[in-house]
């Protein structure tokens, strides 16, 4: 197992440094994704300068291909989870207020399928879970993304509050990396307030 | 770098401005020349291309996008072999890929990829043979790479999703960074492709049908997205979409010249892909293309659609999620169940659709029956929370 892990790490960690990254200190409550959502991380994280969309924000520990936490801060009616990749030819699905919590995993799935051009995405599990003090959903998923063909795993927590979707997801290569930091993600998700 | 030699379909570039009708062909019969074996690449350029293709094949062999079902692979290969003949077929390795778009690719070294989206779009073996024969035509004619174009700009969302990196390889081509042949080579491959078909047991008249339905699907996609429909079948036929329209036209003329008969193998085709149909449908309806998906489902329903097709249509409507869509979806789920759809998800879908059309009791009942059918459902706890006690 170790050699493979090292190969993945070598392939993925070589991500270029992006301008505008900043440090999120441990133990301090911060507003995320330009929204009413706030979290209090138990450990230090790096916030990426680039955003996936206007209501999005990404944190990572070792580079966003090795571990990535994405915040979706109040996705509004008829908007996409993140910026369109090819709006004309393959538009992303949109969040709708008629959605139930059970529809949220599929919204993420279909958004990824379109954006990644990958049919290799499955929802593994979903269960009710409190999120930000309200009834929400916790779900896990697997997918293949990226040109390295890395099998990735994801876990997310979501809730719909006043017609807007709030969600935090964690994604990492399934081999070794997912387990390594998933506890740190869960701590962040547990600390969320709206 | 990967270099598929051919790419067509929704993203195809405009082609064939002037409609040249191809080389003068023996109008009577489709006699194929004998095939020469053990071809080795000639010259520096061709050798380089073969090396690249060999490298691509090494990457592709371990790709998670390859469908490894031996039965399906043997079936698709069988259609190719029956189209081009055993001698020619022996030189090709076929890989069926889990990519829900209309495409197949041919590489210089004899590697062919067949995308799962193609399997959903052809209605019989002859149509599949028409496309695979076209691909083989590139190989037989040793078409060399004619430059490439980058079909899609790199966006930072792709970067965010981990698509862009120093090792851009297979999936870069999946995302649309592709090489393409020249127009003349595409036409030549079309013409030799239909010649294979005419000399096989399959009727050559199948070839143009692939293109006319592809155009209709593109129109349906555009209409579903409230975009202008670009094709006009009556007048100005070639105005907007020369690629598919021109192909359809000259292939029709060729087929008329050959005037060969034969069984297109519709029933055999349905059997051949039956095991994979639910997966192909599922991948299609998750593409956020309501119009195109509904068109495909209509086609499948018209050619003797199964409960799987009805189930997929129900899913399509509930995903679009307009209030009326849930009413339609509930009816369709019921119809699928009545037709013998034994997927527990039909009950799940029915229940969730009914909950949203203010039929709470019936909805909960359907959800309970889902949980009975599938006690270990991965979303069991979530569904239980909706049903209550
Ligand atoms: Zn071609």
TrEMBL record, chain A:
<keyword id="KW-0732">Signal</keyword>
<feature type="signal peptide">
    <location>
        <begin position="1"/>
        <end position="19"/>
    </location>
</feature>
<protein>
    <recommendedName>
        <fullName>PsbP C-terminal domain-containing protein</fullName>
    </recommendedName>
</protein>
Automatic annotation (TrEMBL), chain B:
<keyword id="KW-0482">Metalloprotease</keyword>
<protein>
    <submittedName>
        <fullName>TPR repeat-containing protein YfgC</fullName>
    </submittedName>
</protein>
<dbReference type="InterPro" id="IPR051156">
    <property type="entry name" value="Mito/Outer_Membr_Metalloprot"/>
</dbReference>
<dbReference type="InterPro" id="IPR011990">
    <property type="entry name" value="TPR-like_helical_dom_sf"/>
</dbReference>
<dbReference type="Pfam" id="PF01435">
    <property type="entry name" value="Peptidase_M48"/>
</dbReference>
<feature type="domain" description="Peptidase M48">
    <location>
        <begin position="90"/>
        <end position="252"/>
    </location>
</feature>
<dbReference type="GO" id="GO:0051603">
    <property type="term" value="P:proteolysis involved in protein catabolic process"/>
</dbReference>
<dbReference type="GO" id="GO:0004222">
    <property type="term" value="F:metalloendopeptidase activity"/>
</dbReference>
<dbReference type="GO" id="GO:0016020">
    <property type="term" value="C:membrane"/>
</dbReference>
<comment type="similarity">
    <text>Belongs to the peptidase M48 family.</text>
</comment>
<keyword id="KW-0479">Metal-binding</keyword>
<dbReference type="GO" id="GO:0046872">
    <property type="term" value="F:metal ion binding"/>
</dbReference>
<keyword id="KW-0862">Zinc</keyword>
<keyword id="KW-0732">Signal</keyword>
<dbReference type="InterPro" id="IPR001915">
    <property type="entry name" value="Peptidase_M48"/>
</dbReference>
<keyword id="KW-0645">Protease</keyword>
<feature type="signal peptide">
    <location>
        <begin position="1"/>
        <end position="26"/>
    </location>
</feature>
<keyword id="KW-0378">Hydrolase</keyword>
